[in-house]
Design goal:
- The chain is built from 4 helices and 9 strands, in the order E-E-E-H-E-E-E-E-E-H-H-E-H.
- Strand 6 and strand 7 form a beta hairpin.
- The chain is globular and about 35 Å long.
């Protein structure tokens, strides 16, 4: 899979931009660290997110982690498949395991995120 058009946060969320929208999920590295994911709590469609604020939780067998908005925007869609099959995040973190789709409020915030190469270097520490 080509991750060149993905941007990452230090807290392991990713963003994939499609026009004025962005899909958001957690990285393959993060899902591997968490282990078997059993529940994903997501916001409501219509919620306004501010960059850096918590928008939900992800629960694994051994830990619960907050999910943080990588950019600001309005939630226009949630991945309802995660309600019944949260393991999609384990099986396909960057594709089928996406969590929310947001309408981008501040495109300049994307410039503050890491490229895949920078993120890989970040996770090597």
């Amino acid at each position: 899979m080509d991750l060149a058009n993905y941007k990452f946060t230090k807290s392991h969320e990713w963003v994939r931009v499609e026009g004025e929208f962005a899909f958001v999920g957690i990285s393959d590295f993060a899902q591997a660290e968490l282990g078997d994911i059993v529940y994903v709590e997501l916001p409501e469609v219509g919620d306004e997110l501010e960059k850096g604020e918590a928008f939900g939780n992800i629960e694994a067998v051994k830990a619960v982690s907050e999910l943080f908005a990588p950019i600001s925007g309005e939630v226009v869609e949630i991945n309802e498949n995660l309600e019944d099959t949260p393991e999609l995040v384990n099986n396909s973190a960057h594709e089928e395991g996406w969590m929310i789709k947001i309408k981008i409020a501040e495109p300049s915030e994307l410039d503050e995120l890491m490229s895949f190469e920078d993120y890989e270097a970040h996770t090597q520490h």
